[in-house]
Amino acid sequence: MDVADDLFKALADSTRRTILDELTQKSGQTLFEICSRLSMKHRLGISRQAISQHLAVLEAAGLVETRREGRYKFHDLNTAPLRQITDRWLAPDTSDQEESTP
Amino acid sequence: MDVADDLFKALADSTRRTILDELTQKSGQTLFEICSRLSMKHRLGISRQAISQHLAVLEAAGLVETRREGRYKFHDLNTAPLRQITDRWLAPDTSDQEESTP
DNA sequence: AGCATAGGCAAGTGAACGCTTGCCTATCAA
DNA sequence: TTGATAGGCAAGCGTTCACTTGCCTATGCT
């Protein structure tokens, strides 16, 4: 329905948020690299396909961008879509609020 | 699992985001006021109970605070939890990133 | 008191979601 | 060419989620 729907749906899962954390620490990781990090550092017993699906969701939301090089596919973080959240509810413009009279 | 889970789950639904929009325009609305606004302005054919459940989710996430006065219950917006998102991935500190060597 | 208004609780339903399993394609090294 | 590595596609399963329906409590007006 909403255009922002993909973004918020992508952020709704804790595994996907952890993936964003990992890409924040090191951008340009491959699928297998992300897999091993989630397994080692975060003790997440999760399959490769599950993570692949998570990455697809993050890519649909614009939070992750990919580039292919040979048999490797690198995943880069893009935090730009997150600005929507700030712009929507943390905008400094409070000039046209209605008065509170129940 | 995560403590931030409530926040992102709350934002994952488009109706709840619309409620936040409405509370941004006018804080301190009652349940019925929110109901009529969603119905009129946003053409959302949704029951009162559904909206009540949405407000409970938003309150659990800390995005909405409530105060009772007689038979009225007013709902106030609290955008403070949204700062978590900025702090987590939009933090200006990029000093301790790892180098990208696949 | 009697009735309308404002809100709450709980069970049930259909759809979406997260994850697994199994198999397939593509790239590179021996 | 064979084998290993990196990734993709799709069906199936159990859980969670959004929403409805029905009934109940509390406050206020006349």
Q: Which fold does the CATH topology of chain A refer to?
A: Arc Repressor Mutant, subunit A
* CATH architecture term of chain A: Orthogonal Bundle
Could you spell the SSE succession of chain A in H and E letters?
A: HHHHEEH
Number of helices of chain A: 5
The figure for the number of domains of chain A is 1
Shape of chain A: globular
Which stretches of chain A of 5+ consecutive residues score pLDDT under 50? Answer: none
Question: What class do helices, strands and sheet pairing of chain A give?
Answer: mainly alpha
The amount of beta strand of chain A, in percent, is: 5-15%
Overall mean pLDDT of chain A: 90
**Biggest sheet character of chain A:** 2 strands, antiparallel
CATH class of chain A: Mainly Alpha
Number of strands of chain A: 2
Write out the CATH superfamily name of chain A.
Winged helix-like DNA-binding domain superfamily/Winged helix DNA-binding domain
Please state how the strands of the largest beta sheet of chain A are arranged side by side. 1-2
Helicity range of the residues of chain A? 40-55%
Of all chain pairs, the largest interface belongs to: A-B, 37 and 38 residues
What oligomeric state best describes the polypeptide chains here? homodimer
